[in-house]
């Protein structure tokens, strides 16, 4: 008897449903894709999209505060969105609003990466895309790169990597690679790393990860990698009701015991769940998270 096109091969609720005919259904409802806008007089930030690679379809959305002076140099934030490696976008309303507001609040240049999603693009495509975005940023170190906003405004001695959930995991590996492959970045300096509700394994078998990638070495940071992080500051944001928080606390403890020569601080917001700040950006604790993150980006 022939299989129906609706026969399900596997399901990873609440993220993916895989059909026997190879179709992939994303179960999460995400916000709409919105255009960048560089000239909205009512906005606290300006935004533009830039294609980095046509071959890999790698692109970024860049944000600057609306009130930035012509040649004012600002810290640069490289932001990596979450979404279990398989959904969400730097271009959707949720992340456009969050990263743009963060750029305005922190008075920083923000580069939000539109990386390739699994499983159509197998891991480590997302990691490689974010590394290529960081290398593209580094090409502006002499103020003669392809993007005028970075040439005019980005202080590449003050780069902060930040991401939420899966994006935080990617940022950890970006920081490690920035240390081990520093020659590819020239004179730029990754000075800070912010991990928001980071994913370092789900503590329940990691079924989705094992479907997306057979290599579990990406999941849990090694002591050697932690000891060689090039940044001198790390801040971790956790939520009390988030099952992933234990991976964040383990990261804090392992980093402190690794011999790394830097300062780490972990903040846990009571009574909240995973990425609450994206779902309820105006709530008191989301505002607190935003203020603390903006301050962290600007520390010397």
Please, what is the average pLDDT? 95
Strand order of the largest sheet: 4-5-7-6-8-9-10-11
Instruction: State the end-to-end distance.
Output: 67 Å
> What general form does the structure show?
globular
Radius of gyration: 19 Å
Query: What is the number of strand segments?
Result: 11
Give me the number of helical elements.
9
* Class from helix and strand fractions: alpha/beta
Characterise the protein shown here.
- α1 (93-106) crosses α9 and α2 (125-138) crosses α4.
- The protein has an eight-stranded mixed β-sheet, with helices on both faces. The protein has a three-stranded antiparallel β-sheet with strand order 1-2-3, with no helix packed on it.
- Helix content is 31%, strand content 25%.
- The protein is an alpha/beta fold and 300 residues long.
- α4 (166-180) links the parallel β8 and β9.
- The chain has helices at residues 93-106, 125-138, 148-153, 166-180, 207-212, 223-227, 245-257, 276-279, 284-298; strands at 8-12, 16-19, 24-26, 45-53, 58-65, 74-80, 109-114, 154-164, 190-196, 233-239, 263-269.
- The termini are far apart.
- The chain is built from nine helices and eleven strands.
- The radius of gyration is 19 Å and the shape is globular.
- The model has no long low-confidence stretch (mean pLDDT 95).
Give me some keywords for this one.
single chain, 300 residues, alpha/beta, 8-stranded mixed beta sheet, 25% strand
Q: What is the topological layout?
A:
Elements: E1 8-12, E2 16-19, E3 24-26, E4 45-53, E5 58-65, E6 74-80, H1 93-106, E7 109-114, H2 125-138, H3 148-153, E8 154-164, H4 166-180, E9 190-196, H5 207-212, H6 223-227, E10 233-239, H7 245-257, E11 263-269, H8 276-279, H9 284-298
Parallel strand pairs: 6-7, 6-8, 8-9, 9-10, 10-11
Antiparallel strand pairs: 1-2, 2-3, 4-5, 5-7
